[in-house]
Amino acid sequence: METTVKDELRTRTQLLGELATMRQDMVEMRQQVIELEGLLRGYKRTEEALTRLLMLMGTYDLKVILQQAVKSVLEIARTADRGSLQLLEQSHQILRTVVVSDANDQLTDVISFQPGVGIAGHVLVSGQTINVPDVLRDKRFVPGKFPLRFRSLLVAPVMIKSRRLGTLSLSSAQIGAFSLTDELLIKLVADQTAVALENAQLFASRRLVHQTGV
């Protein structure tokens, strides 16, 4: 009789342990499903943003191209608070911000750089994307005249072949906000933007030749 009771208790204990394990497995599976759903939404959002950007290949309006580039990269990189695009003024060799995502930011208030100066200037010269986890710990960072509103900075070159047109930038108030995936995505958007910009510039040049006959 005593042995039977002990066996029943042992069996119940084992069943409770198995139920607890199954419950934990279900919790983990549910979390995995939630993560997968998040990834799928991210992929869909990325696809939609890149599709809109590809549609710019037939657009020759420079302002539309620049604004859509910043909008697209912000839709993809969800950790970013702000985005901006800088173009190189070839005549003066100045990297000047031409589009900002925040309507409260004034272009006249945004600092301009010479190639090789600041994070964006280094990106322009090197032709490589730079991901800065904390700008306050990076000697290349050049602060502006207004209080700093971001800590992380991700900048990609806008270039086609060896011709450097400018840079595409993302910033976040979080430290270490941007991942390797963000680096790849911003470079993809920057490359598509470069092609659209070149097409728009070629179209403008041809139209000028047609109008002037020169």
Structure summarized in a few sentences:
The protein is α+β, with helices and mostly antiparallel strands. The chain has four helices and five strands.
Give structural notes:
The protein is α+β, with helices and mostly antiparallel strands and 214 residues long. The chain has a single domain (47-212), classed as GAF domain (Beta-Lactamase). 51% of the residues lie in helices and 17% in strands. It has four helices and five strands, in the order ααββαβββα. It has helices at 2-54, 62-76, 118-126, 180-212; strands at residues 82-89, 94-100, 130-132, 152-160, 163-172. A five-stranded antiparallel beta sheet has the order 2-1-5-4-3, with helices on both faces. Helix 1 runs parallel beside helix 4 (180-212). The protein is elongated and about 105 Å long. The protein starts with a helix and ends with a helix. The model has no long low-confidence stretch (mean pLDDT 81).
List keywords for this structure.
Beta-Lactamase, about 50% helix, about 210 residues, alpha+beta
